[in-house]
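Practice problem: NAD(P)-binding protein
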Amino acid sequence: MTEFQIPPESLTNLKDKVVLITGSTSGIGKVTVHLCLSLGAKVIAGDVNPFPEDFLPLLCEQRQEILSSSLLFVKTDVTDWTSLRNLFISGEKRFGRI
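Answer key — structure tokens:
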């Protein structure tokens, strides 16, 4: 099986974009949240489970402020329309767009 890789330089246009990710607290979703944040995107993260405590390691206070202004987590069940709709509404309210 051939491994598929996306070169990081092809994702630089994510800076200042608002990205919505479901299934965001584990596996590919968690890695995608981390990647988007590292590239300067704002992230609306939805999942039925919260992020594990080790996801956001203790960082300097300034970095934590930047991160908290760039990441919104909303508990979301994607099988429930009201829950999913709330994710979009919360994200739009926080960042003004998706």
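Discussion: Strands lie at 18-22, 42-47, 71-75. Students who identified this feature from the tokens alone can consider the problem solved.
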